[in-house]
């Protein structure tokens, strides 16, 4: 396949401006970071991907939206980035923002300042070596807009090239997959039970109906984002089941979950067809009763 140039990427994007960036890049066979790079000098700026530089500065932006995703699940939380705890595995625990970060995966970052129907759409987007999104921060109407330009200027890199060359990622450095793996569950090495198809969806709906607080963890090799609390509005739309509450959105592909396992501590893990962990769910008081009502997969 002939390499596509940044100019060709911009031309193609102009024809499909409303398509989600991730879906657009995938349609062209490109990593999402290549799409950001193509707009460097116009709506994008290359910035440092060092969490020790990015994350402390985000507190000045006030209320923003934190987004972490994998191929099958997206978690969005509104809050402030404060209380950064640096380290090889870094943390931000400033409820409702709760992040765990594997800093080695943070290899490329861009500040995007795009025109939207209601004004500027500003975000900071971080990618791994292959160009896959690790974490994104989106400004909102209530964000401190005057802090944006100084933050971008402080993080701006000297290299403002429009080319992006993906590189292999380190498979051993995977924060998310290390949480849970399928083979030990199937082989009975872990005392867990396999739940019937649709268990995650039923648990979400019942937790909302009964006001049982739930915990979600959604992640990828470089970032895990968590939510803890009551959920209210749970809706299905096509293949997605969604939580659409103020300050919280979760979008989960129902058709991607092929195995669901419940652990003795009440943690429930959903896996995809490639044995990848999609979402982890658990709960507080009342959760055990909801989980007990879920049937096992029949042998």
Automatic annotation (TrEMBL):
SUPFAM superfamilies: Heme iron utilization protein-like. One of its GO terms (biological process) is iron ion transport. It comes from Rhodobacter capsulatus (strain ATCC BAA-309 / NBRC 16581 / SB1003). This is Hemin transport protein HmuS. Residues 30-155, 190-263 form the Haemin-degrading HemS/ChuX domain. Transmembrane segments: none annotated.
């Amino acid at each position: 396949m002939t390499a596509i140039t940044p100019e060709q990427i911009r031309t193609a994007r102009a024809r499909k401006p409303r398509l989600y960036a991730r879906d657009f890049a995938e349609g062209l066979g490109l990593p999402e970071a290549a799409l950001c790079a193509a707009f460097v000098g116009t709506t994008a700026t290359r910035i440092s991907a060092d969490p020790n530089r990015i994350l402390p500065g985000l507190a000045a932006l006030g209320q923003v939206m934190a987004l972490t995703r994998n191929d099958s699940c997206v978690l969005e939380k509104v809050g402030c980035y404060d209380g950064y705890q640096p380290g090889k595995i870094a943390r931000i625990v400033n409820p409702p923002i709760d992040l765990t970060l594997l800093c080695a995966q943070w290899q490329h970052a861009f500040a995007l300042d795009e025109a939207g129907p209601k004004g500027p759409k500003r975000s900071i987007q971080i990618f791994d070596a292959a160009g896959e999104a690790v974490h994104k921060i989106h400004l909102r109407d209530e964000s401190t807009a005057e802090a944006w330009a100084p933050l971008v200027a402080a993080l701006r890199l000297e290299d403002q090239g429009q080319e992006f060359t993906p590189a292999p990622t380190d498979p051993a450095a995977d924060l998310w997959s290390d949480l849970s793996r399928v083979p030990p569950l199937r082989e009975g090495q872990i005392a867990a039970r396999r739940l019937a198809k649709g268990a995650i969806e039923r648990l979400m709906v019942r937790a909302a109906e009964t006001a049982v607080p739930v915990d979600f963890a959604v992640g990828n090799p470089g970032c895990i984002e968590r939510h803890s609390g009551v959920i209210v509005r749970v809706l299905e739309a096509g293949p997605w089941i969604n939580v659409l509450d103020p300050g919280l959105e979760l979008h989960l592909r129902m058709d991607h979950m092929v195995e669901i396992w419940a652990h003795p501590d009440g943690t429930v893990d959903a896996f995809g067809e490639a044995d990848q962990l999609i979402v982890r769910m658990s709960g507080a008081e009342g959760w055990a009763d909801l989980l007990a009502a879920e049937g096992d997969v029949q042998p």
